[in-house]
Specification:
With about 325 residues, the protein is α/β, with parallel strands linked by helices. It has helices at about 55-65, 75-80, 100-105, 125-130, 175-190, 215-225, 235-245, 265-280, 285-300, and strands at about 90-95, 115-120, 145-150, 165-170, 195-205, 250-255, 255-260, 305-315.
Length: about 325
């Protein structure tokens, strides 16, 4: 995931080159193969430490908010308006909520009373999400929240009974094909739409272009697919899974556009992006060191601009009796 979730968070720290800062946890590759961030996707039976630092999620939140697609909001509002309304308003489940950035972005853009159910495997992040949750909808209606520590792999249609909407951010690319299929089945079984934002698309543009850009991108994408994770294939797989369950699916681009005003985020993203590529292909290390130093210098000088491509997906599942 998760929020998921990145571009996609990789779940840990990597040693920094001499004289440089370490990568904020969540912005760099995992220290052990198979580790994933934010959500406990499998029942390992142990109490794993948090994989995201709140500092990373806070750093990326403005870029996430600017990137999410507004084009999906109107069809989402129309579908929600057509559903039977509960007496206490909309019930929205945010999967892999992290520090709650999705709720802070979406709740003020929807009319009517809302109750957000925030799901994450990290109680530390859930605390941040609950404390900083929005209190008012677009029309001034009340917004309430509850938190649930849990596992997205166990999410079922029963757990989503009565849901008006399922949301997630930067989650799909840290799931497997089976987990995405289970998520689609749960949403379809509950008859609720799903708004799943900011999944990596596997494409990056940096100004000025560099001969190593392509190799770093390819190695990074391979790193994202480790252990059967979907990485940049996630949106395509999710669209197929929801369509198989009869949902109408819309996909729109949601790129990060990073310039001098986002230098702190760009620096952390660069370190994590290059670090993941080198972890996947250690033979890149010697050339990647110079590449990273050159890119960081341009970033510090306000000369670097980056477009990190993502996709947002809206799945309009068929309503079922008793849905929302």
């Amino acid at each position: 995931m998760t929020e998921q979730a990145t571009t996609t968070p990789y779940g840990g720290t990597i040693p920094a080159p001499p004289g440089t800062r370490e990568v904020i946890p969540g912005a760099g590759p995992a220290p052990r193969p198979g580790e994933r961030a934010t959500l406990r996707l499998k029942d390992t039976g142990d109490d794993e430490p948090a994989r995201y630092a709140p500092e990373w999620l806070q750093l990326r939140e403005p870029a996430d908010a600017a990137a999410r697609s507004y084009d999906l909001l109107d069809p989402l509002r129309i579908r929600i308006a057509d559903l039977p309304r509960r007496a206490d308003g909309l019930v929205i489940h945010d999967i892999g909520c992290g520090t709650g950035s999705m709720g802070r972005w979406l709740a003020p853009r929807l009319d009517g009373a809302q109750h957000w159910v925030l799901h994450d495997r990290d109680p530390y992040l859930l605390h941040f999400a609950a404390v900083a949750s929005p209190r008012s909808a677009a029309d001034g209606s009340h917004v309430t929240v509850e938190t649930r520590r849990g596992d997205v792999a166990r999410l079922t249609s029963d757990a989503l009974a009565g849901a008006s909407l399922v949301t997630a951010s930067a989650l799909l690319d840290v799931l497997t094909r089976e987990e995405v299929g289970a998520l689609a089945a749960a949403c379809a079984g509950a008859g609720c739409p799903a708004l799943l934002t900011l999944s990596v698309a596997g494409r990056v543009e940096l100004t000025e272009p560099h001969p190593l850009d392509r190799e770093i991108t390819e190695a990074f994408n391979a790193h994202q697919r480790r252990g059967g994770l979907l990485g940049p294939d996630a949106v395509t797989v999710a669209a197929e899974a929801f369509t198989e369950h009869g949902a109408t699916v819309r996909i729109t681009p949601s790129p990060w556009r990073l310039g001098p005003g986002e230098a702190a985020l760009t620096e952390q993203w660069l370190r994590g992006w290059v670090g993941a590529a080198v972890e996947e292909r250690p033979e890149l290390a010697s050339r990647a060191d110079g590449y990273l130093a050159e890119r960081l210098e341009a970033c510090a000088a306000g000369e670097l601009r980056v477009v990190v491509h993502h996709s947002d997906l809206l799945a309009l599942c068929r309503p079922v009796d008793g849905a929302a």
